[in-house]
Amino acid sequence: MTRIFSIHKPKKGLPLIFDSPHSGQDYPLDFNYICSRADLERAEDKYVDDLFSRVPAYGGTLLLAEFPRSYIDANRAIDDIDLDLIEGGHWPAELYGPIFPTARSDAGIGLIRRLIRPGEPLYGSKLCAETVHRRIHDFYIPYHKKLEELIESAHFNFGEVWHINCHSMPNASARPRLPIAISGLNAKNADFVIGDRDGSTASQHFTRALREFIKNLGYTVTINDPYKGVELIRRYSNPARGRHSLQIEINKALYMNELTLEKSNNYNALKSDIEKIVLFLSDYVSAQLIPRAAD
To answer: pTM for this structure?
Structure first.
């Protein structure tokens, strides 16, 4: 049976929650894809679970999706369902609730993917609505419930919580849309992208502090360009009430060969720097809790 998620907790925890929704590799038997397994693996945030594996050593909790994102994507809205993928082109809203497809569904990368890449289908036939509903019920909802439980429990116990949603991005899609903001017209691709949905999911102080720390490690860092963050930081954030969520995208070219999927010679160096980032976040959260305790 396919595992839904795994949780890695510290002995003594901080209100610091990390989750990786796209690094799962436990492929369900009923997936029935027609593309190659390698194509599916290229769609994963491969190795992100390992890159952040030291989180519990610094007081953070790490939640990992074990199912693949191409089976159902935990970082999409629950109603972002692609009618072009549904048998008969009809969704029984009276049974399963209404749907609201977005441009991601139009592009074949909604809640359940229709395309593995532009022009290349993931399935040989359409899916029945019941199949989609079952994936939502069996995988999507349990993952979200667990993440919400972790965030709400930390907020209850500390009065504030910091959530890091961990991802990786293809080098080909890492070029900022506003390159002049980095280094003029000849800007390089970003090494890291921090997303806070235009300042709506975390305090500006938190976002900027993280950016400056990563920059000081020698990396190129952008904020919300080209990735702002999607459902998992939108749904559980409320910075005015002490719920801060950021998305981190890491350029895959920093640590792996995107064609062969093998780790590169730089893998261990990047993993060491990720550990430094985790330590920085741990120290940051600890520092924020001290004045709160003194009120």
So the answer is: 0.95
Candidates 52, 41, 113; CA nearest to 260 is 41
Largest distance between two CA atoms of the chain: 61
Is the CA virtual torsion 19, 47, 121, 225 positive or negative?
A: positive
188-217 confidence digits (pLDDT tens): 899 999 999 999 999 999 999 999 999 999
Reduce the DSSP state of residue 28 to 3 states and report it: coil
How far is residue 18's CA from residue 231's CA, in Å, rounded to a whole number?
Answer: 15
Residues pairing with 222 in the sheet:
193
The per-residue pLDDT for range 49-102, each reduced to its tens digit, is 999 999 999 999 999 999 999 999 999 999 999 999 999 999 999 999 999 999
The SS3 call for residue 286 is helix
Domain CATH code at residue 195: 3.40.630.40
Question: Which residues of the chain register pLDDT less than 70?
Answer: 179-186, 291-295
Determine contact, residues 283/224, Cβ cutoff 8 Å.
no
| Contact (CB, 8 A) for 23 and 74 | no
Nearest CA to 126 out of 2, 27, 32, 44 is that of 32
Count of domains for the chain:
1
Say if 85 falls within a structural domain. Answer: no
Q: Which pLDDT value is given to residue 295?
A: 59
Structural domain boundaries enclosing 218: 5-77+129-294
Q: What is the total residue count of the chain? A: 295
Look at residue 280 and tell me if it is in a domain: yes
